Amino acid sequence: MAVPVVDPSLNPVSPTVEAEAETRRPRRRPHRADVLVIGAYVLLGVVVCLNYWVDVNNRVSSHLPTDHSWFEWLFSHGAYSVRNLENPLFSTQQNAPDGVNMMANTSLLGVTLPLAPLTWLLGPQVVYALYLGGALAATAGTAYWMLSRHLVRSRAAAFVGGGFLGFAPGIVHHANGQPNFVSNFLLPLIVVRVFRLAEPGRWRRNGLVLGLLVAYQIFINEEMLLLTAMACLVIVIAYAVMRPRAARERAGTFAAGLGLGGGLALLLTAYPIWFQFNGPQSYRGLQGGVFHSWGEDVVAFVTFPRDTIAGNEAVEATIGLTEQNTWFGWPLVLLSVVALALLVRRSLVARILAVLVVLFSVAALGPEIRFNGALTGIPGPWSYIPEDLPLVEMMMPTRLTLVTTAALGVLLALAWDAVAGNGRPPVPAPRTPEPAAERRWSRWRRPIGYVAVAAAVVPLIPTPLPAEPVDPPPAFITSGAWQPYVPDGHTLVPVPIPSNVHGLSTLRWSALTQHQFPIPAGYFIGPNLDGEGVFGAPNRPTSTLIYRSMDAGALPELTDENRRQAVEDLRFWRASVVVLGAHPKEAVLRELMTALLGEPQRVDDVWLWDVRDRV
User: Fold this and answer.
1) What pLDDT shows up at residue 479?
2) Of 118, 210, 338, 415, which cross-links 193 as Cys (Cβ 3.0–4.6 Å)?
3) Residue 297 gets which letter from DSSP?
């Protein structure tokens, strides 16, 4: 998650502010409290993934089961690439024979490649569940480090803010099958390093570290890096407007460090980025701008998210099944408004957070304002942005609120710190008698403040993600009995053929065998005939026939042309064997494939059509 924060200690504007910032910065040595904080985050990460651990090998997300299977496949891709010393930027083990451009998909290479040994040892299902909880905890941990070392003095304040940044509603919702959006542990480090670029005499070191962090983040999630860069740009502009003199004094050092860091990141990632946009199976934009119209519902901001203590699954029927990138609940929205009103007058950071909250919340509303699940006809900010604008065409407006989420996490830490009394000047003012009303408020300030923060945050504590059972692959697949039937250069064609709609179980055949055989089609983004990105491979006549028969539950009228096309498609896929395992539509699928290819063999627990003599 983007963690937009400007720390006055990183950009001191006067000796007084610099001294105050120094008093707010705690000791840098590890503290016993730090260990307890990390332990709490790890425990929460385990709780979030608890339903997977009930039967980790045979459970997937019930919210996004296909995405869950895709990321299991990605962990196998990393293991396969390392084991076979193959180019990880491309794969021919899915969508054979055309393959998949992994840089043009959410490939998570920065994670799957280093974890390859664990995937070999434990399998992609176990590594997926381990990594998902670990990434949530790691993001909260780095956010805690950023807050406690650079912004607030109270470790309790940093704990609350870091916990929100790592386990915010939108982040936990993405954990339902999309671990790339919870892999934000580098972003707090990147933001801190950006604002240390202005340190005199350290721009080279800061620039080099920034460049390395940015380069690595590109192989984890480019979209979250883009959101972080946008947030940092807004912060820099806001700071320059609010502190023009200090900004001018440090502009040269900042620009030098930024140029060095950007140059290094570009040098390290130039070829992968070129491959993403110009390599085989690359594409330009998504067909129909499918993401462009997805704006955030206004009511979603004050709604409790599904996967939390206060959440209710039924609310999705009202607002609609969205990504829940906001879903802060009304107590947090109310607390944020009050906290900003109280802090903006005396805190530069709070003023910048207010800019971020307003700007990114409004921008996330999309091309048409949506209220309580219904379009209002009122134009939104994205209605004035061309759909084919580079980068914009790939963005989903609602995800801009992840910057809002980050700003609120920092605001929670600031509010707690202020309640704890850590926002006062380091040089005490001359003591004057306090009026009775002020004494009473001083006595009640802390309990009221702590209760208010708790009332906003506790309802958002995540609950275990919903999971559902999935059929394991046939023993014919897991035992390796398929090997005599699939020579090198040929594919195993599972039925149903995997796609973004059908064939969840058959996509897992490839994932759970760690890519021992290539398969046709699959679940990914690749080019159509016009070069636009589409989900899955363009359907061939036989795959269309399979999907239509499954949906209807009955066999359509078949012709000799259907049989000819089936052979032609198998030849295109370089098929050696067609395999049908246990499936809810097994009867109609067996009848269809028999009508197209003749009687099958029963081998172990599958129906098998050996087509090597036909292709």
Assistant:
1) 94
2) 210
3) B
